[in-house]
Amino acid sequence: METVKKYLRRYFIDAMGAMALGLFASLLIGTIFGTLAKYTGLDFLNVIATYAKAATGMAIGVAIAHKLGADPLVIFSCAGVGAMSNAMGAVISQSGGIVKWAATANEGIGNIFYSAGPAGAFFAVIIAAEIGRLVSKKTKVDILVTPVVTLLVGFAASWLLCPLVSYVMYYLGVFIATATTFQPLLMGIVVSVVVGVILTLPISSAAICAMIFSESAYLAAIANGTAEGFLLAGGAAVAGCCAQMVGFAVVSFRENKWGGIVSQGLGTSMLQMGNIVKKPIIWLAPTLAAAITGPISTMIFKLKCMGVSAGMGTCGLVGPIGVIDSTDMGVFEWVGLVLVCVVLPAVFSVIFNEIFRKLGWIKTGDMALDN
């Protein structure tokens, strides 16, 4: 059992966390620069955005391999593995069946090319890095053997897994987009609560949202006529993440003061995980707030988002920036952004939290963070 826990932590907490960092340093930063270019008119920011986004697969590859403790040659080779696995996928017909495995979007003419994206890179890079570590520094010609083995294994893993991963991600995206299109109230609640909970858990909501709300998923939603629902689901994800971060920051103010506001409201609500394990009821107020702000986002303000930003919340204000990038912003939408991402999560979390305090379920000190 300990061995299972060890590998689950290694791959689904450590590696996924590293993948999120790779996404932050490429796709996420590129999105921020692109948004700034949109509102400032500075063309050089668009150039930066283009190249940063193009490096997404490579950044994921390097980040995961580094976290797994690989040697330098393996890490550098995984840049190539990340690039190819992020791009590979499957050509999917209009009826939803796989037409063929595909290495590039050029092979999808007439149908839908769906790349495995970050999800494919995640699995392929782990396999390539682990095999690369087995041969690294084992021969006198390591400078040739290690990159060759890592890249060959990476290609094999990408070619075998990425089309299957892309197929699964395609149908997950179709389900979310279609369900949100026809049931924006219900899906607003579900997506907001689930993604918000994932944000606070020690796994990466940013990485998961990058997989679900990818560019390929958006193109597939356009083809299926559910693009609106797809983007609204991304907006609900932002609402849920903001509810967790802002909610915990505000309701724990008694214990953590302004330092807690900054570390949780602009950092991560994951800091409360130790306290949640001790007393799970403290998680209820921000989660209930997410269940309210999610459908407010989808039904009233119709805030939209896609990509890694959907899983970031108020961390560095990346979630709101993602909404600004994907939504046609007018006065109504700006008001909605402030309400959904900051004001309402704070208000509802405080209301629920005070009710629970009156009932004796929560006491001062339950949410204190270690200095």
- Number of distinct helices: 15
- How are the strands ordered across the major sheet? 2-1-3
**Alpha-carbon Rg, integer:** 21 Å
Low-confidence stretches: none
The main pleated sheet reads as:
3 strands, antiparallel
Which outline best applies? globular
How many distinct beta strands? 3
Span of the ends, CA to CA? 33 Å
Report on this structure:
The protein has 15 helices and three strands. With 371 residues, the protein is mainly alpha-helical. It has a domain at 183-371. A three-stranded antiparallel sheet has the order 2-1-3. Helix 6 (142-182) runs parallel beside helix 9.
Furnish the topology, listing elements before pairings.
Elements: H1 2-40, H2 43-54, H3 56-67, H4 72-87, E1 89-92, E2 98-102, E3 112-115, H5 117-135, H6 142-182, H7 184-200, H8 205-212, H9 215-224, H10 227-251, H11 253-265, H12 273-278, H13 284-301, H14 318-326, H15 331-358
Antiparallel strand pairs: 1-2, 1-3
Key terms:
371 residues; 4% strand; mainly alpha; three-stranded antiparallel beta sheet; 15 helices; 74% helix
Brief overview, please?
By secondary structure, this protein is mainly alpha-helical. Helices cover 74% and strands 4% of the residues. A 3-stranded antiparallel beta sheet has the order 2-1-3.
